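Hi Y.,

Following your request, here is the sequence exactly as I used it, all 89 residues.
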Amino acid sequence: MDDQSALRFTITDQAGGVAPENLSKLFRKGYSTKSQATNSGLGLHWCANTLNALGGSISAHSEGLGRGTCFVVVVPLRAAAGRSEVRAA
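Below is the corresponding structure, written out as tokens. Let me know if you'd prefer a different format.
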């Protein structure tokens, strides 16, 4: 996939950040830093699976706790079958 065929965007915050040992776990099914009573740990897992199925990706980067987190999302751009242009209604 070249730069012309994908939308790449970055989402950055200055919030709590992610501990280095947890970065590799962020997209695992069931992983959450929140209470299991109120969170299933599926949101980022579903995002990663959906993007991967589309040929895209999502990744996370953090300098550690208290230093914010940066997510990079890549979504492939494809023309709809049989159409050269798709317009919103």
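Helices lie at 20-23, 43-53.

Thanks again,
Q.
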